[in-house]
Amino acid sequence: MRLVLSIAGLSLMAGQVTAADMAVHLQIPEMSVAEYHRPYVAFWVARPDHSVAVNLGVWYQQEANREGAGTDWLKDIRQWWRRIGRTLDLPIDGVSGATRPPGEYALEFSGTSGPLTDLAEGEYTLHVEATREVGGRELVRIPFTWAPGKSFEKTVSGTSELGTITLKLIP
Amino acid sequence: MNRIAQSLFLGAAVVTATFGAAQAHRAWLMPSTFVLSGDEQWVTVDGAISNDLFFPNHVAMSLDDIKVMAPNGSIADTENSATVKFRSVFDVKLDQQGTYKIVNGGGGYFASWTENGERRRQRGSLEELVAAGVDKKEGAQLMRSSRRVETFVTLGAPTETVFKPSGDGLEMVPVTHPNDVYAGESVAFKFLASGTPAVGLDVTIVKGQDRYRDTVDEVIVKTDAEGVVHFTLDEPGRYWLSADQGGEITVEGRKMSHRMSYVAIFEALPL
Fold first, then answer.
1. Of A69, B68, B119, B137, whose CB count within 10 A is highest?
2. Cβ atoms within 10 A of the Cβ of A58, count?
3. Which DSSP symbol is given to A65?
4. Chain B stretch 93-122, residues whose beta carbon is closer than 8 A to a beta carbon of chain A
5. pTM higher than 0.95 for the full model?
6. Which residues of B touch A138 (CB under 8 A)?
7. CA gyration radius for chain A?
8. What ipTM was estimated for this complex?
């Protein structure tokens, strides 16, 4: 749970989940490749016109290395970059995070504090986009309705760069 | 054939030959990357005139008329410039956020006249041609050419400062930003000829890698009453866009024909 907290940057404690919280469970798959780099991953909530309602998070190399600054490759998270990344001044507290190794990650976003607080009722799509250096890129979308008291659960499987992704709305 | 008819015929033949050649060989500028992120980046740019897109296999593009316009409207430097056998190359440092335009643009004047029964031609500035007296020769015709080959790279979010039209020749003004083109989405570009909307202009779009196709598969779209073309590219990739237009222009009181050509290189990203 500490991991969840550090990723989401929330002051939310386990067991204190209140109305209209959002939980995203995602898998970064193991890759059997000669040259492996951890993927850059972005997740955001978009309106039907593709505009970004909530920029939930972006995982990228935080420090410069021999090859350059981590921000050099943010444009490879292509849709995220187009829809919101290119207009941001990074890093952003609670949004920017380090890359993660293969594994399962549970991200929780409170409906009463943080970026979801001001999300108006309506139709949205959760986007999870992963792109890997000398690897592939994948974008998984989960449409959902955001309304008070409405619970929701859907799991979608990525086919290459992402494993299963589950979106839960917990009223 | 009387003289007037002959001169018109030859004049037309010259124009046809010039533009026929331009169509057979395609001029292009190809940046190593179109869309970039981070604080400061470099792109390396190839320039060539070739048959296949985008393989340098004919002649290198001259670097004499290369200009890089930076997002703030200033002219950026090119570095490490070299012209090798089939291509020219140069680097551009991107240290401003926004869109850069890399242009090979220029223009010139041609005079043609009849001397001792033979058709003669000369190119140069208008002053040089007038000083040489060629405009007073028998059957003299003057022609102005305005040509432009350009491409665009964006660091960060796209900006539009570099698209301010100059009013000379054919120019493209984005409705859709050329660094924001995606396969499957409608694209619109506006064209200006001498600063006014180029109505009914044929715009040809060819996808790169034509070497690996049996057919060119070009798409020709016509500009509407506002000078705008609308098209949708089915496949991501790098594209070559070209348009030519003839017209008349009066320069320093001299009426002459005006040949305008425009080429842009851009990429369409997958959604």
1. B68
2. 24
3. B
4. none
5. no
6. none
7. 15
8. 0.81
